[in-house]
Design brief:
With about 100 residues, the chain is an alpha+beta fold. About 15% of the residues lie in helices and about 50% in strands.
């Protein structure tokens, strides 16, 4: 864990599913959440960085098409939006964008 991936973010995500990956292993265990830094917005004032807003992409992967993981993510983060869903090899991938 570090500044880009704080322990508190891991704690929230692991309360939704047991398998949370910031650096996914070769073999994933499902259901899981893969968390990637998507963007870092920096607000500057007086030629200094005033604040940083880190945007994450969460990919929820599950064998269940109808699951409640997405609802839990939406309920857990104030700044969250659903991006898209796709299915590969009978695994449902739900993509969310959050700011944390």
């Amino acid at each position: 864990m570090g500044k880009l991936y704080p322990q508190s973010l891991y704690d929230v995500l692991s309360s939704i599913v047991d398998n949370v990956y910031f650096t996914p292993p070769e073999r994933l265990q499902y259901p899981c959440i893969i968390c990637d830094v998507d963007d870092i917005e920096m607000v500057k004032a007086d030629d200094k960085i005033y604040s940083k807003n880190i945007r994450y992409q969460l990919t929820v992967i599950s064998r269940e098409e109808d699951n409640t993981y997405g609802d839990s993510i939406i309920d857990s983060f104030e700044y969250c939006r659903f991006n898209r869903r796709y299915v590969i090899d009978n695994l449902c991938h739900d993509i969310f964008i959050i700011y944390y």
